[in-house]
Design brief:
Blueprint (H helix, E strand, L loop, with lengths): L3 H18 L1 H21 L4 H4 L4 H29 L1 H17 L7 H15 L2 H10 L4 H12 L1 H17 L9 H23 L12 H16 L9 H9 L2 H34 L6 H9 L2 H18 L4 H16 L6 H22 L9 H33 L3 H24 L9 H5 L5
Helix pairs in contact: 1-11, 2-7, 2-8, 2-9, 2-10, 2-13, 4-5, 4-6, 4-18, 5-6, 5-7, 5-10, 7-18, 8-15, 8-17, 9-10, 9-14, 9-15, 12-18, 13-14, 13-17, 13-18, 13-19, 15-17, 16-17, 16-19, 18-19
Amino acid sequence: MSAQAPSAAVERTAIKKVSVRLVPFVALMFFVNYLDRTAVSFAEPNGMGQDLALTAAQFGFASGIFFLGYIVLEVPSNMALHRFGARRWLARIMVTWGIVSLLFTWVSSSEQLYTLRFLLGVAEAGFFPGAILFLSQWVPSRHRTKILGLFYLAQPLTTVFGAPLAGWLIGRHGLFGLEGWRVMFLFVSLPAIILGVVAWFYLIDKPADAKWLTPAERDWLTAELAAENAQKTGHESTHAKGDLKKAFSSARVWILAAVYFGFVYGLYALAFFLPTIINGFQDQYETTFSVMDKAWITAIPYLPAAIVLFFWTRHATRHGTRTWHVAGPAVVGGVSIPLALYMGSPTATVAVITVTACAIFAALPVFWSVPSRFLTGAAAAAGIALINTAGNVAGFASSYITGWLKDWTGAYYVPLYLVGFFMLLSAALMILLAVRHRTDEPAPAAEHQAKEAIG
Protein backbone atom coordinates (compact mmCIF):
# COMPACT_ATOMS: atom_id res chain seq x y z
CA MET A 1 0.00 0.00 0.00
CA SER A 2 2.75 2.45 0.96
CA ALA A 3 4.71 1.49 -2.19
CA GLN A 4 1.69 2.00 -4.41
CA ALA A 5 0.78 5.43 -3.06
CA PRO A 6 3.96 7.24 -4.21
CA SER A 7 3.73 5.50 -7.62
CA ALA A 8 0.12 6.62 -8.08
CA ALA A 9 1.05 10.17 -7.10
CA VAL A 10 3.94 10.23 -9.57
CA GLU A 11 1.67 8.88 -12.32
CA ARG A 12 -0.98 11.48 -11.60
CA THR A 13 1.41 14.44 -11.67
CA ALA A 14 3.37 13.17 -14.68
CA ILE A 15 0.30 12.72 -16.88
CA LYS A 16 -1.16 16.01 -15.72
CA LYS A 17 2.03 17.85 -16.66
CA VAL A 18 2.05 16.24 -20.10
CA SER A 19 -1.60 17.20 -20.59
CA VAL A 20 -0.87 20.81 -19.65
CA ARG A 21 2.55 21.36 -21.24
CA LEU A 22 2.22 19.47 -24.53
CA VAL A 23 -1.38 18.66 -25.46
CA PRO A 24 -2.72 22.27 -25.73
CA PHE A 25 0.24 23.33 -27.87
CA VAL A 26 0.01 20.35 -30.23
CA ALA A 27 -3.78 20.85 -30.36
CA LEU A 28 -3.20 24.49 -31.34
CA MET A 29 -0.92 23.29 -34.13
CA PHE A 30 -3.72 20.94 -35.27
CA PHE A 31 -6.23 23.82 -35.08
CA VAL A 32 -4.14 25.88 -37.49
CA ASN A 33 -3.48 22.82 -39.65
CA TYR A 34 -7.18 22.02 -40.12
CA LEU A 35 -8.08 25.68 -40.68
CA ASP A 36 -5.50 26.04 -43.43
CA ARG A 37 -6.53 22.89 -45.26
CA THR A 38 -10.28 23.71 -45.12
CA ALA A 39 -10.04 27.47 -45.75
CA VAL A 40 -11.09 26.89 -49.37
CA SER A 41 -14.51 25.73 -48.13
CA PHE A 42 -15.15 29.23 -46.74
CA ALA A 43 -13.61 30.99 -49.75
CA GLU A 44 -15.57 29.15 -52.46
CA PRO A 45 -19.13 30.35 -51.67
CA ASN A 46 -17.88 33.82 -50.72
CA GLY A 47 -16.28 35.00 -53.94
CA MET A 48 -13.54 32.56 -54.91
CA GLY A 49 -15.85 30.25 -56.83
CA GLN A 50 -17.22 33.12 -58.87
CA ASP A 51 -13.87 34.88 -59.37
CA LEU A 52 -12.18 31.67 -60.57
CA ALA A 53 -15.30 30.39 -62.42
CA LEU A 54 -15.32 27.05 -60.55
CA THR A 55 -17.94 24.35 -61.07
CA ALA A 56 -18.80 22.03 -58.16
CA ALA A 57 -16.63 19.31 -59.69
CA GLN A 58 -13.69 21.70 -60.12
CA PHE A 59 -14.02 22.86 -56.52
CA GLY A 60 -14.22 19.24 -55.37
CA PHE A 61 -11.09 18.40 -57.35
CA ALA A 62 -9.26 21.42 -55.93
CA SER A 63 -10.29 20.40 -52.42
CA GLY A 64 -9.33 16.78 -52.95
CA ILE A 65 -6.03 17.14 -54.80
CA PHE A 66 -4.58 18.30 -51.49
CA PHE A 67 -4.79 14.69 -50.33
CA LEU A 68 -2.92 13.35 -53.36
CA GLY A 69 0.00 15.59 -52.44
CA TYR A 70 -0.28 14.44 -48.85
CA ILE A 71 -0.27 10.76 -49.86
CA VAL A 72 2.92 11.14 -51.92
CA LEU A 73 5.01 11.92 -48.83
CA GLU A 74 2.86 10.51 -46.01
CA VAL A 75 4.86 7.43 -44.98
CA PRO A 76 8.31 8.90 -45.83
CA SER A 77 7.48 11.99 -43.76
CA ASN A 78 6.46 9.97 -40.73
CA MET A 79 9.58 7.82 -41.00
CA ALA A 80 11.64 11.03 -41.13
CA LEU A 81 9.88 12.21 -37.97
CA HIS A 82 10.81 8.94 -36.27
CA ARG A 83 14.43 9.41 -37.36
CA PHE A 84 14.94 13.13 -36.76
CA GLY A 85 12.50 13.71 -33.89
CA ALA A 86 9.11 15.38 -33.63
CA ARG A 87 10.46 18.78 -32.57
CA ARG A 88 12.45 19.35 -35.75
CA TRP A 89 10.10 17.64 -38.18
CA LEU A 90 6.77 19.06 -37.00
CA ALA A 91 8.32 22.55 -36.90
CA ARG A 92 9.62 22.12 -40.46
CA ILE A 93 6.21 20.94 -41.68
CA MET A 94 4.41 23.93 -40.17
CA VAL A 95 6.69 26.59 -41.63
CA THR A 96 6.57 24.94 -45.07
CA TRP A 97 2.80 24.66 -45.22
CA GLY A 98 2.40 28.21 -43.88
CA ILE A 99 4.45 29.57 -46.77
CA VAL A 100 2.46 27.58 -49.35
CA SER A 101 -0.84 28.58 -47.75
CA LEU A 102 0.16 32.23 -47.95
CA LEU A 103 0.46 31.96 -51.74
CA PHE A 104 -3.30 31.28 -52.02
CA THR A 105 -3.75 35.00 -51.44
CA TRP A 106 -2.72 35.66 -55.05
CA VAL A 107 -4.20 32.65 -56.89
CA SER A 108 -5.84 33.76 -60.15
CA SER A 109 -6.98 30.60 -61.99
CA SER A 110 -8.30 27.12 -61.35
CA GLU A 111 -4.99 25.66 -62.57
CA GLN A 112 -3.04 27.70 -60.02
CA LEU A 113 -5.53 26.62 -57.35
CA TYR A 114 -4.98 22.94 -58.22
CA THR A 115 -1.21 23.39 -58.10
CA LEU A 116 -1.18 25.15 -54.73
CA ARG A 117 -3.62 22.66 -53.18
CA PHE A 118 -1.36 19.81 -54.30
CA LEU A 119 1.73 21.54 -52.91
CA LEU A 120 -0.09 22.28 -49.65
CA GLY A 121 -0.70 18.56 -49.27
CA VAL A 122 2.97 17.84 -49.95
CA ALA A 123 3.98 20.46 -47.37
CA GLU A 124 1.58 19.15 -44.69
CA ALA A 125 2.41 15.47 -45.29
CA GLY A 126 3.06 13.65 -42.05
CA PHE A 127 1.77 16.32 -39.68
CA PHE A 128 -1.35 14.58 -38.38
CA PRO A 129 0.07 11.05 -37.99
CA GLY A 130 3.25 12.64 -36.63
CA ALA A 131 1.27 14.48 -33.97
CA ILE A 132 -0.62 11.28 -33.08
CA LEU A 133 2.66 9.35 -32.86
CA PHE A 134 4.30 12.10 -30.82
CA LEU A 135 1.55 12.20 -28.19
CA SER A 136 1.37 8.39 -28.09
CA GLN A 137 5.06 8.32 -27.13
CA TRP A 138 4.42 10.45 -24.06
CA VAL A 139 1.67 8.54 -22.24
CA PRO A 140 0.87 4.87 -21.48
CA SER A 141 -2.06 3.32 -23.32
CA ARG A 142 -4.53 3.62 -20.42
CA HIS A 143 -4.27 7.43 -20.66
CA ARG A 144 -4.00 7.62 -24.43
CA THR A 145 -7.67 7.82 -25.39
CA LYS A 146 -8.22 10.83 -23.14
CA ILE A 147 -5.03 12.56 -24.30
CA LEU A 148 -5.93 12.02 -27.95
CA GLY A 149 -9.46 13.18 -27.20
CA LEU A 150 -8.16 16.46 -25.79
CA PHE A 151 -5.92 16.82 -28.85
CA TYR A 152 -8.78 15.99 -31.23
CA LEU A 153 -10.97 18.71 -29.74
CA ALA A 154 -8.99 21.09 -31.94
CA GLN A 155 -10.65 19.72 -35.09
CA PRO A 156 -14.31 20.55 -34.39
CA LEU A 157 -13.29 23.70 -32.52
CA THR A 158 -11.46 24.84 -35.65
CA THR A 159 -14.83 25.26 -37.32
CA VAL A 160 -16.54 26.62 -34.19
CA PHE A 161 -14.03 29.47 -34.01
CA GLY A 162 -12.57 29.32 -37.51
CA ALA A 163 -15.85 29.76 -39.41
CA PRO A 164 -16.76 33.07 -37.71
CA LEU A 165 -13.12 34.17 -37.99
CA ALA A 166 -13.11 33.34 -41.71
CA GLY A 167 -16.42 35.18 -42.12
CA TRP A 168 -15.05 38.24 -40.34
CA LEU A 169 -11.88 38.23 -42.46
CA ILE A 170 -13.89 37.81 -45.67
CA GLY A 171 -15.87 40.85 -44.54
CA ARG A 172 -12.65 42.90 -44.66
CA HIS A 173 -13.06 43.12 -48.44
CA GLY A 174 -10.78 45.78 -49.91
CA LEU A 175 -8.05 45.56 -47.25
CA PHE A 176 -4.68 45.92 -49.01
CA GLY A 177 -6.70 46.10 -52.24
CA LEU A 178 -7.67 42.41 -51.95
CA GLU A 179 -10.99 40.62 -52.27
CA GLY A 180 -12.37 39.38 -48.94
CA TRP A 181 -11.55 35.73 -49.55
CA ARG A 182 -7.94 36.67 -50.36
CA VAL A 183 -7.70 38.63 -47.11
CA MET A 184 -8.81 35.48 -45.29
CA PHE A 185 -6.06 33.36 -46.89
CA LEU A 186 -3.49 36.00 -45.99
CA PHE A 187 -4.30 36.05 -42.29
CA VAL A 188 -5.01 32.36 -41.66
CA SER A 189 -1.61 31.42 -43.13
CA LEU A 190 0.65 33.48 -40.86
CA PRO A 191 -0.03 31.53 -37.61
CA ALA A 192 1.41 28.34 -39.12
CA ILE A 193 4.75 30.01 -39.81
CA ILE A 194 4.88 31.58 -36.34
CA LEU A 195 3.89 28.37 -34.53
CA GLY A 196 6.42 26.38 -36.55
CA VAL A 197 9.24 28.58 -35.29
CA VAL A 198 7.93 28.36 -31.70
CA ALA A 199 7.58 24.55 -31.96
CA TRP A 200 11.30 24.22 -32.75
CA PHE A 201 12.13 25.60 -29.32
CA TYR A 202 9.11 24.41 -27.32
CA LEU A 203 8.57 20.75 -28.18
CA ILE A 204 10.61 17.94 -26.62
CA ASP A 205 11.03 14.56 -28.29
CA LYS A 206 10.81 12.23 -25.28
CA PRO A 207 10.04 12.22 -21.55
CA ALA A 208 13.67 11.54 -20.61
CA ASP A 209 14.62 15.01 -21.91
CA ALA A 210 11.78 16.94 -20.22
CA LYS A 211 13.27 19.24 -17.58
CA TRP A 212 9.77 20.24 -16.45
CA LEU A 213 9.25 16.69 -15.14
CA THR A 214 10.79 15.65 -11.83
CA PRO A 215 13.36 12.82 -11.94
CA ALA A 216 10.75 10.46 -10.47
CA GLU A 217 8.21 11.44 -13.15
CA ARG A 218 10.76 11.05 -15.96
CA ASP A 219 11.82 7.65 -14.66
CA TRP A 220 8.24 6.47 -14.24
CA LEU A 221 7.16 7.55 -17.75
CA THR A 222 10.28 6.12 -19.39
CA ALA A 223 9.99 2.79 -17.59
CA GLU A 224 6.23 2.51 -18.12
CA LEU A 225 6.46 3.21 -21.85
CA ALA A 226 9.43 0.87 -22.32
CA ALA A 227 7.64 -1.97 -20.54
CA GLU A 228 4.50 -1.38 -22.57
CA ASN A 229 6.40 -1.27 -25.88
CA ALA A 230 8.19 -4.52 -25.07
CA GLN A 231 4.83 -6.33 -24.90
CA LYS A 232 3.57 -5.15 -28.29
CA THR A 233 3.60 -7.41 -31.30
CA GLY A 234 5.31 -4.67 -33.29
CA HIS A 235 8.12 -4.10 -30.77
CA GLU A 236 11.37 -2.61 -31.94
CA SER A 237 13.47 -4.91 -34.09
CA THR A 238 17.12 -4.48 -34.89
CA HIS A 239 16.30 -3.53 -38.47
CA ALA A 240 13.90 -0.86 -39.68
CA LYS A 241 12.89 -3.14 -42.57
CA GLY A 242 11.56 -5.65 -40.08
CA ASP A 243 9.40 -3.01 -38.41
CA LEU A 244 8.07 -1.79 -41.74
CA LYS A 245 7.27 -5.33 -42.85
CA LYS A 246 5.29 -5.94 -39.67
CA ALA A 247 3.25 -2.78 -40.22
CA PHE A 248 2.54 -3.35 -43.91
CA SER A 249 1.76 -7.06 -43.54
CA SER A 250 -0.55 -6.61 -40.53
CA ALA A 251 -4.19 -7.46 -41.28
CA ARG A 252 -5.22 -5.23 -38.38
CA VAL A 253 -3.46 -2.24 -39.92
CA TRP A 254 -5.24 -2.70 -43.24
CA ILE A 255 -8.66 -3.22 -41.65
CA LEU A 256 -8.13 -0.11 -39.51
CA ALA A 257 -7.13 1.77 -42.67
CA ALA A 258 -10.46 0.78 -44.26
CA VAL A 259 -12.37 1.80 -41.12
CA TYR A 260 -10.65 5.18 -41.11
CA PHE A 261 -11.43 5.62 -44.82
CA GLY A 262 -15.15 5.60 -44.07
CA PHE A 263 -14.91 8.13 -41.24
CA VAL A 264 -12.75 10.54 -43.20
CA TYR A 265 -14.98 10.22 -46.26
CA GLY A 266 -17.81 11.60 -44.13
CA LEU A 267 -15.61 14.14 -42.33
CA TYR A 268 -14.39 15.91 -45.46
CA ALA A 269 -17.68 15.68 -47.34
CA LEU A 270 -19.02 17.83 -44.50
CA ALA A 271 -15.92 20.00 -44.09
CA PHE A 272 -15.64 21.05 -47.73
CA PHE A 273 -19.29 21.15 -48.81
CA LEU A 274 -21.24 22.21 -45.71
CA PRO A 275 -20.63 25.95 -46.33
CA THR A 276 -21.75 25.48 -49.94
CA ILE A 277 -24.84 23.52 -48.86
CA ILE A 278 -25.71 26.27 -46.37
CA ASN A 279 -25.23 28.88 -49.10
CA GLY A 280 -27.76 26.88 -51.15
CA PHE A 281 -30.38 27.24 -48.40
CA GLN A 282 -31.00 30.76 -49.73
CA ASP A 283 -32.50 29.46 -52.98
CA GLN A 284 -33.93 26.24 -51.51
CA TYR A 285 -35.84 27.96 -48.70
CA GLU A 286 -36.10 31.47 -50.22
CA THR A 287 -34.15 33.19 -47.49
CA THR A 288 -31.08 35.42 -47.32
CA PHE A 289 -27.94 35.08 -45.18
CA SER A 290 -25.06 37.50 -44.75
CA VAL A 291 -21.47 36.23 -44.86
CA MET A 292 -21.38 36.15 -41.04
CA ASP A 293 -24.77 34.40 -40.90
CA LYS A 294 -23.41 31.61 -43.09
CA ALA A 295 -20.25 31.41 -40.99
CA TRP A 296 -22.18 31.03 -37.73
CA ILE A 297 -24.53 28.42 -39.25
CA THR A 298 -21.51 26.47 -40.49
CA ALA A 299 -20.12 26.48 -36.94
CA ILE A 300 -23.32 25.18 -35.30
CA PRO A 301 -22.78 21.41 -35.76
CA TYR A 302 -19.23 21.51 -34.46
CA LEU A 303 -19.77 22.87 -30.95
CA PRO A 304 -22.02 19.95 -29.88
CA ALA A 305 -19.56 17.66 -31.68
CA ALA A 306 -16.71 18.97 -29.51
CA ILE A 307 -18.77 18.42 -26.34
CA VAL A 308 -19.75 14.87 -27.36
CA LEU A 309 -16.13 14.12 -28.29
CA PHE A 310 -14.95 15.21 -24.84
CA PHE A 311 -17.40 13.09 -22.87
CA TRP A 312 -17.22 10.10 -25.23
CA THR A 313 -13.45 9.83 -24.85
CA ARG A 314 -13.76 10.22 -21.07
CA HIS A 315 -16.21 7.32 -21.03
CA ALA A 316 -13.88 5.17 -23.14
CA THR A 317 -10.98 6.01 -20.82
CA ARG A 318 -12.88 5.21 -17.63
CA HIS A 319 -14.44 1.97 -18.82
CA GLY A 320 -11.91 0.74 -21.36
CA THR A 321 -12.17 1.31 -25.11
CA ARG A 322 -14.70 -1.05 -26.65
CA THR A 323 -15.58 -1.84 -30.26
CA TRP A 324 -18.90 -0.06 -29.87
CA HIS A 325 -17.08 3.18 -28.98
CA VAL A 326 -16.11 3.30 -32.68
CA ALA A 327 -18.75 1.17 -34.44
CA GLY A 328 -21.73 2.77 -32.66
CA PRO A 329 -21.02 6.34 -33.83
CA ALA A 330 -20.33 5.02 -37.33
CA VAL A 331 -23.84 3.56 -37.48
CA VAL A 332 -25.39 6.78 -36.15
CA GLY A 333 -23.48 8.89 -38.68
CA GLY A 334 -24.22 6.53 -41.55
CA VAL A 335 -27.96 6.62 -40.90
CA SER A 336 -28.27 10.33 -40.03
CA ILE A 337 -26.46 11.95 -42.94
CA PRO A 338 -28.94 10.85 -45.66
CA LEU A 339 -31.82 11.95 -43.40
CA ALA A 340 -30.61 15.53 -43.72
CA LEU A 341 -31.82 15.43 -47.32
CA TYR A 342 -35.46 15.14 -46.26
CA MET A 343 -35.70 17.93 -43.69
CA GLY A 344 -38.09 20.76 -44.45
CA SER A 345 -36.17 23.74 -43.07
CA PRO A 346 -32.61 25.00 -42.56
CA THR A 347 -32.97 24.43 -38.80
CA ALA A 348 -33.99 20.78 -39.15
CA THR A 349 -31.31 20.12 -41.76
CA VAL A 350 -28.54 21.59 -39.61
CA ALA A 351 -29.87 19.65 -36.59
CA VAL A 352 -29.49 16.34 -38.42
CA ILE A 353 -26.06 17.31 -39.76
CA THR A 354 -25.11 18.09 -36.14
CA VAL A 355 -25.91 14.48 -35.19
CA THR A 356 -23.61 13.29 -38.00
CA ALA A 357 -20.80 15.60 -36.88
CA CYS A 358 -21.17 14.39 -33.28
CA ALA A 359 -20.92 10.78 -34.45
CA ILE A 360 -17.80 11.33 -36.54
CA PHE A 361 -15.91 13.30 -33.92
CA ALA A 362 -16.88 10.98 -31.07
CA ALA A 363 -15.32 8.01 -32.81
CA LEU A 364 -12.10 9.44 -34.27
CA PRO A 365 -9.95 9.97 -31.14
CA VAL A 366 -11.07 6.61 -29.72
CA PHE A 367 -10.18 5.00 -33.04
CA TRP A 368 -6.65 6.42 -32.93
CA SER A 369 -5.95 4.79 -29.57
CA VAL A 370 -6.16 1.35 -31.23
CA PRO A 371 -3.08 1.17 -33.55
CA SER A 372 -0.58 2.14 -30.84
CA ARG A 373 -1.71 -0.82 -28.72
CA PHE A 374 0.06 -3.31 -30.97
CA LEU A 375 2.66 -1.25 -32.85
CA THR A 376 5.65 0.76 -31.65
CA GLY A 377 8.84 2.37 -32.96
CA ALA A 378 9.27 2.42 -36.74
CA ALA A 379 6.38 -0.01 -37.11
CA ALA A 380 4.08 2.44 -35.35
CA ALA A 381 5.33 5.32 -37.50
CA ALA A 382 4.70 3.34 -40.69
CA GLY A 383 1.42 1.77 -39.51
CA ILE A 384 -0.13 5.04 -38.34
CA ALA A 385 1.01 6.74 -41.54
CA LEU A 386 -0.48 3.92 -43.63
CA ILE A 387 -3.83 4.22 -41.84
CA ASN A 388 -3.80 7.98 -42.27
CA THR A 389 -2.94 7.53 -45.94
CA ALA A 390 -6.22 5.66 -46.36
CA GLY A 391 -7.91 8.67 -44.80
CA ASN A 392 -6.20 10.96 -47.28
CA VAL A 393 -7.44 8.78 -50.15
CA ALA A 394 -10.93 9.24 -48.67
CA GLY A 395 -10.34 12.97 -48.40
CA PHE A 396 -9.64 13.18 -52.13
CA ALA A 397 -12.40 10.74 -53.07
CA SER A 398 -15.11 12.40 -50.97
CA SER A 399 -14.20 15.90 -52.15
CA TYR A 400 -14.03 15.10 -55.86
CA ILE A 401 -16.82 12.50 -56.01
CA THR A 402 -19.21 14.68 -53.99
CA GLY A 403 -18.67 17.62 -56.34
CA TRP A 404 -18.82 15.45 -59.47
CA LEU A 405 -22.02 13.69 -58.39
CA LYS A 406 -23.57 17.05 -57.46
CA ASP A 407 -22.88 18.38 -60.98
CA TRP A 408 -24.07 15.13 -62.59
CA THR A 409 -27.29 14.68 -60.61
CA GLY A 410 -28.02 18.32 -59.80
CA ALA A 411 -28.44 17.63 -56.06
CA TYR A 412 -26.65 16.23 -53.01
CA TYR A 413 -28.87 13.11 -52.63
CA VAL A 414 -26.54 10.56 -54.21
CA PRO A 415 -23.35 12.04 -52.68
CA LEU A 416 -24.76 11.96 -49.13
CA TYR A 417 -26.16 8.44 -49.51
CA LEU A 418 -22.64 7.41 -50.50
CA VAL A 419 -21.29 9.04 -47.33
CA GLY A 420 -23.78 7.02 -45.30
CA PHE A 421 -22.73 3.80 -47.03
CA PHE A 422 -19.03 4.27 -46.26
CA MET A 423 -19.71 5.07 -42.61
CA LEU A 424 -21.85 1.95 -42.21
CA LEU A 425 -19.07 -0.02 -43.87
CA SER A 426 -16.65 1.35 -41.25
CA ALA A 427 -18.94 0.05 -38.50
CA ALA A 428 -19.08 -3.40 -40.09
CA LEU A 429 -15.28 -3.56 -40.49
CA MET A 430 -14.70 -2.47 -36.89
CA ILE A 431 -16.94 -5.30 -35.70
CA LEU A 432 -15.09 -7.71 -38.01
CA LEU A 433 -11.80 -6.58 -36.50
CA ALA A 434 -13.15 -7.24 -33.01
CA VAL A 435 -14.18 -10.75 -34.05
CA ARG A 436 -10.85 -11.59 -35.69
CA HIS A 437 -8.56 -9.80 -33.22
CA ARG A 438 -9.14 -8.77 -29.65
CA THR A 439 -9.36 -5.00 -29.87
CA ASP A 440 -11.33 -4.18 -26.72
CA GLU A 441 -9.22 -2.63 -23.99
CA PRO A 442 -9.50 -4.08 -20.48
CA ALA A 443 -11.50 -1.91 -18.10
CA PRO A 444 -9.17 0.06 -15.83
CA ALA A 445 -8.84 -1.11 -12.27
CA ALA A 446 -10.96 0.72 -9.73
CA GLU A 447 -7.90 2.41 -8.27
CA HIS A 448 -7.02 3.86 -11.70
CA GLN A 449 -10.53 5.18 -12.09
CA ALA A 450 -10.24 6.89 -8.72
CA LYS A 451 -6.82 8.33 -9.54
CA GLU A 452 -7.33 9.55 -13.09
CA ALA A 453 -4.54 11.92 -13.88
CA ILE A 454 -6.53 14.29 -16.04
CA GLY A 455 -9.91 15.70 -15.23
